[in-house]
From TrEMBL:
Family (UniProt): Belongs to the Niban family.
Domain Niban 1/2/3: start-end pairs: 9-154
InterPro entries, per database record: Niban-like, Niban_1/2/3_dom
Protein name as annotated: NIBAN protein
Pfam families assigned to the protein according to its UniProt record, in alphabetical order: Niban2
């Protein structure tokens, strides 16, 4: 009871006025990282569509879809996504000195883990909605892939 009032006063005066601007500042790199994940998924599926339109090869399509499933674990392809949130390192250094924020690396790592999880969910959902083995009419496969991609991105 004796600590409650001074603690509320401290939060109201020293922290609460800055919360909105802090969140906006932090969300820039986080949002751009998740936007990069979305763009990577879109690019990879578009490449599958283009490859299938060139080859019309169902076996190769299955291989490409199988390869898409490994995308979340492909550190080279995911790296540009992860780099976007590395900007948090600089932003959080300022917060560290002003608000005693610690474990900056943990915040960045957790954000990158969420990005990988989002990609895992996207490719899993894509695989569930589109199964090349169930596609009888190869003329409609590219259109179906595009529809599934848009559904996943939604």
């Amino acid at each position: 009871a004796s600590v409650s009032e001074p603690a509320q006063k401290c939060c109201t005066e020293n922290i609460q006025p800055f919360l909105t601007s802090i969140l906006e500042e932090l969300m820039g790199p986080v949002s751009s990282g998740f936007t990069e994940v979305r763009a990577l998924f879109d690019k990879e599926v578009n490449e599958i569509i283009q490859d299938f339109q060139k080859t019309n090869d169902m076996t190769r399509l299955k291989e490409n879809v199988d390869q898409l499933m490994t995308l979340p674990f492909n550190s080279v392809k995911m790296e540009p996504c992860y780099l976007k949130v590395n900007l948090l390192q600089e932003l959080l250094q300022d917060l560290k000195s002003r608000f005693k924020v610690y474990n900056i690396d943990f915040v960045i790592q957790r954000t990158q883990n969420f990005m990988q999880e989002l990609m895992e969910n996207a490719v899993y959902t894509f695989e569930q909605l589109f199964s090349p083995s169930h596609q009888a009419d190869s003329a409609k496969v590219a259109t179906t892939i595009e529809k599934v991609k848009l559904r996943v991105l939604k």
